[in-house]
């Protein structure tokens, strides 16, 4: 979350910067070990009040372990956790200010829906009338007012998850923790519910952390994504930063689809792939360094058999890294065609490209045809690799 910085004059006329608000949740130098196995290694992270954060990574990367440490369900081996300026590092889970939703919903099967939601409110000192009012309000918030007398087994998976969410926010916690809350649902319900959760989070303004292994889910819901691998944080950034400007090869490969080619830096601004030179930002890599060149299928631009590009102001534009390619396979995926191309300039390697339905129709792209495609210079990414 970014804040505009303005300079305020002091009474003496000397300009000073305003104080920057402290993070709501601050994790410092956190480690977690199980015997000789290190599950979390030197994790430091700051989260602003009201942010929606996703911990994203493959199974076993440490994302759930980190969530459980924040919740006090599995204390860290070392490190500190502050919530709202309060040190909660060694507090038991019952003394921490959060609500949590598990993948399995964890609803009480012998209690009605309204009783499930009221469960966490009964030890808060509220009267029965206050609890009933709050339950009614929460049922309306998640759109299940008519289901109050039913039992969990009588509801669909998506409805049960909404009830679990209502129960988690019933006590108005400062922090909402979601442990893969959508993974047990079918695809259409997942898409619908992720919009509902994000909308509810914005309405409540509650700081939220969600664990997921689903890249699309994280990209659609998060203000910032924390990409984890082997117990460390690989990168923290907005969805667009993570997708468009990955800092490591792991992040580039894990978030979305990629083409990867062995490459060698020729000079500043040029790289060799398949014995051909391509324009590319070489960052800090010296000439002669080996690298992995990465381009996403969606970033490859088709130009038909003869390239002719017209800019937004109707002036001819020169395509970058234009190559001839043969269309070997085409797979229709609804909103786009996934094509597999071979190109002499890339050697024997296959180039996967995603073309819109309109582009395929307009350029008459078909299996066995020859086209030209462009690999934009700023979308050809380089990552160092050992020789």
TrEMBL record:
PROSITE patterns registered for this protein in UniProt? ABC_TRANSPORTER_1, ABC_TRANSPORTER_2
Q: Name one Pfam family in it.
A: ABC_tran
Recorded hits in SUPFAM superfamilies, A to Z, give:
MOP-like, P-loop containing nucleoside triphosphate hydrolases
Question: Boundaries of each ABC transporter domain copy?
Answer: 25-255
Question: Which InterPro entries does its entry note?
Answer: AAA+_ATPase, ABC_SmlMolc_Importer, ABC_transporter-like_ATP-bd, ABC_transporter-like_CS, AminoethylPonate_ABC_PhnT2, Mo/tungstate-bd_C_term_dom, P-loop_NTPase
Which example biological process does GO assign this protein? quaternary ammonium group transport
Please name the GO terms that the record assigns under molecular function.
ATP binding; ATP hydrolysis activity
Give the record's keywords alphabetically. Answer: ATP-binding, Cell inner membrane, Cell membrane, Membrane, Nucleotide-binding, Translocase, Transport
* Family listed: Belongs to the ABC transporter superfamily.
Question: Which protein, by its recorded name, is this?
Answer: Putative 2-aminoethylphosphonate ABC transporter ATP-binding protein
Question: Which organism was this protein described from?
Answer: Ensifer oleiphilus
